[in-house]
Amino acid sequence: MGDVKPSNGAVDTFPKLLLDNARRIGDRPAIREKDLGIWQSWTWAQVKDQIAAMAAGLKVFGFERGDSLAIVGDNRPQLYWAMTAAQALGGTPVPMYQDAVAEEMQFVLEHAEASFAVVEDQEQTDKLLEIMDRCPKLKEVVYKDPRGMRHYDQPFVRSLDSLMEAGRKFLAENPGWFEDEAAKGKGSDIAIMLYTSGTTGRPKGVMLSFDNLLITARNGVAWDNLKETDEVMAYLPMAWVGDNIFSYGQSYVAGFCVSCPESSDTVMQDLKEIGPTYFFAPPRIFETILTQVSIRMEDATKFNQWLYKTFMNVARRVGPDLLDGKPVSFIDRMLYAIGEFLVYGPLKNELGFSRFRLAYTAGEAIGPDIFDFFRSLGVNIKQLYGSTEASVFICMQKDGDIKPDTVGPPATDVELKIADNGEVWFKSPGVFVAYYKNDEATKTTKTEDGWVMTGDAGFFDADGHLKIIDRAKDVGKLNNGTMFAPKYLENKLKFFPFITEAVAFGHEKDHAAAFINIDLEAVGNWAERRGLAYSGYTDLAMRDEVYDLVAECVDKVNKDLSEDEALAGSQIKRFLILHKLLDADDGELTRTRKVRRSTVAERYGELIDALYSGIDVCPVEAKVTFEDGRTGTIKADVKIREATIYPSQQAQAAE
Q: Is the CATH number of domain 14-280 3.40.50.12780?
């Protein structure tokens, strides 16, 4: 079985790939899910039967070629099947962020003109019912989980089980129908519509074709030699393009198994049980894992602390070289082997990383210390650079050629160039077809000859690796002429486990300054070990001891900046710790946790002014949205602290 290669050529859509996989590797596991503590698995042959029934059920209840199907919920096999079912019928799946509020969903449903929605449960059903009267095209809501749905008697609300039952009856009367429908699709058809997170305005619907996704997925599979024996954990939002490549596209191409966790709260435990070989996580998750490891080691016995520190020193010295196949002395190999037995192996097993042969991170820069930590343990973590408009892959790191501060060379079939303004442009088979119903935005993003403007500023290093500095539109200048790259500064701040979010300011100002959100778990643990009592985030954030802790982090960032000739003048002169966490529910972050700069600047204008006015305390009052939807007000006296500014290396040399 392991030598069976995926078919290409005429197999140019996901429904065709599904039929091909069911024929070739039908008895291999395709997807599994943990439900009520028990793992359930479906083979490729079983998945084909489920999707055929779902497609037929959609047909029975009026889904037509050209319709859009909204999909809302956590990562569930049935929701992935709904995507293929819609595609087989010539429809367009539109996955949506499951934590979006009803009003956010309304825009996407209206804009995409969704006629059907397949949702996970009662919570998502209620959101759609709340806005149904504002979405005239939406005519059917299909729910997967029947819990709590007994008294919903609207004629347009039905269970997925009943829809599939109708579909099976239809298939019994129309044998071969599903195969005939799947054969009608072609590679140039629209496969999916994904909405961008909208940091500067309304989200845009990115139309991706089967060719976009399948050629890109095949290239990624070949780049990393992925096989049908690999396994991946699907836990990131289905509305995100990465999930559509890692958990959907590459799974169909390579034939590997996808595992869906029981819930977002059980991901780490489920990870340990499944032990995937292929893993993707944004830097924030790797940072959180390292923070938890550090916290646990601080609470360990003295002997275990010594053991951990001793062998982690060995790992940092030789682990990355061993991973990259570089020469390492016999003694160091022996020490590393002992460390693997005593420290690294048990730690990876505890994290669920034991079987990893490949892990990727992307979205934001990852701290070199975090990157090196995991590679030291023997985890083959790599960075990639991508976007929705590229069907993910723009740059990817190659095994044995890894740098912590770059995103690697161009991916297979990708052309890159740096525009005169420093912006990164690319051309590839993954280039999106267009923005749905937005020709103007398409023209300002994609040239007639297929070059896409990423909006990111970057440059190539001497080895041909791309290094991203910031969003091109966000790169500015201080009044002294120094380049100001806010995202670069923010990422350096977020490399510290005590800082979870940062927003930098400085364009057309005399100096750089920053808002900082502390990590409540990491700083809370730090405070408890020092006997510092606190009543919540705001109370903890305002403590002088916490300001001292954050000041050390800011000073280290400034020290690093002083060694960079181009950025030495943009060291952070003043900072404050925000009295509340920036929150997507308050409109300050996107659903993918990117800062909405304009919203933050507008909402906290008085605090920005305070950073540049010389005052040390600024009283504020802010509205917040709680998890249950209630709103409240937080009042605080926000302190402003001066940071240490270091002379640049150039200035030191002149002395």
A: yes
